[in-house]
Amino acid sequence: MSKHIIFHIDVNSAYLSWEAAYRLQQGDSLDLRSVPSVVGGDPLTRHGIVLAKSIPAKKYDIKTGETLYSALSKCPDLIIAKPNYLLFRQCSQALGDILKEYSPLIQQFSVDEYFVDFTSLDQLWGDPLKAAYLIKDRVKNELGFTVNIGISTNKLLAKMASEFQKPDKVHTLFSEEIPEKMWPLPIEELFMVGRATSQKLLSRNIKTIGDLAHTDPRILRTTLKSHGILIWNYAHGIENSPVRPGGRVKVKGMGNSTTLPFDVDSRKEAHLVLLSLVETVSARLRHDQYFAQLVAVSFRTHEFLSYSHQRKISHPTDCTNEIWEIACELFDELWKGQPLRHMGVRVSELCHNDFLQLSFFERDYEKDRKIDQTIDVIRERFGSHSIMRSSYLHSGLKAMTGGVIAEEEYPMMTSLL
DNA sequence: TCTGGGGTCCTAGGACCC
DNA sequence: TCTGGGGTCCTAGGACCC
In the structure, how far is the CA atom of residue A172 from the C1' atom of nucleotide C11, in angstroms? Predict the structure, then answer.
């Protein structure tokens, strides 16, 4: 079996770079990337966290995920831009379009990451390293933002390589380079080692990826179960999942959740929020022609405690009203009256149902189906806010909450890589 | 003006069945 | 006398990713 050549393409500070490139293109003279700046939500509606930061902002020790309040206290002159998700999606797709010219085997891994299988494409494009530079520079010149490209023989090592020095760089991380390039790194920089795992490893004095690689995997197994074996393999560069081209991986579930602009403390209001979440979830369900057999609600209280409650339902459904009724039931069973800052609805156990089975004991949802269909058509034609239930008037709540339907959904994090 | 939103996978414990 | 044991399904919570 011949060795694979895999590229991992990672947009540098994606949201921030995209916004910066857009502003320059609009005639703005300031490049956000050259000053301390972040993309972040609106603190007034309690969405105030850093989504992406410029390299100068990083010098102030500003971190992704921290509050804007805290970021501003570190750097009072910080420039804050609002996220423009439509722009982000367009930039993401434009990058994918360029990559497709080089290989048919590309996989979108997230909004700002792609894997490209370059195996046996060197006859076409020459030396992989040269090709990577070519791609990187083309993206910079044509799209106005920079990427890092990592090159190796599997996805894990390619991804680790793209994390090396930024921005606008190409790095390799082949097996023989692992001790020199990867083992000195702190443990938390290994893919799949998050906060909880790094805490456990540090308490056992495992500080670097090299330390992890040289730990007896049986010890890891006892403390971290199968995850311990996974990261031990990763520390040795062992990983062999294929680059999945094009077509979507089967989606397992879909959900919408939102942090509310104010604490919700009445049942009626909570039910209204649930409806606004169910409206988008069920519309996505219908758009992708799925039915769900499991409904889950979750919330986070004012004290930041999280709860969830789920139930399998007797027959698959995509009906707004039906899912809403179940969500309300679940909510009522779970909620003890705490003030709520965040609420979510998620459906899963999806199936394609070409025919609808109606049990004798279920109520007839045929009328609801017709209404759902009609509303979907109106919203598609005139926008998602063109029609809403009157109960939202003066409620201070949005009638639909959550992401818009993406024209072209990409497969999200599938099993690990 | 403190702390997003979208996912997937794993684990533990209980119910239930044979 | 004592307290099987394996399998599956369901649920809640936690871990990780971007």
Answer: 45
Using the 8-state DSSP alphabet, how is residue A364 labeled? Answer: P
Residues with Cβ within 8 Å of residue A380, at least 6 apart in sequence: none
Summary count for chain A: helices (H), strands (E): 13, 12
Give me the mean pLDDT over the A347-374 stretch: 76
Note the pLDDT tens digit of each residue in A306-336.
999 999 998 899 999 999 999 999 999 999 9
- Judge if the beta carbon of A111 is closer than 7 A to nucleic acid strand C: yes
Active site residue A380: no
- pLDDT recorded at residue A226: 93
* CATH superfamily for domain A183-235: 5' to 3' exonuclease, C-terminal subdomain (1.10.150.20)
Which residues, at least 6 apart from A328, have a Cβ–Cβ distance to it below 8 Å?
A271, A274
* A117 assigned binding-site residue: no
pLDDT of residue A406: 39
- What residues are paired with A310 via a beta bridge? A296
Residue A301, beta-bridge partner list: A340
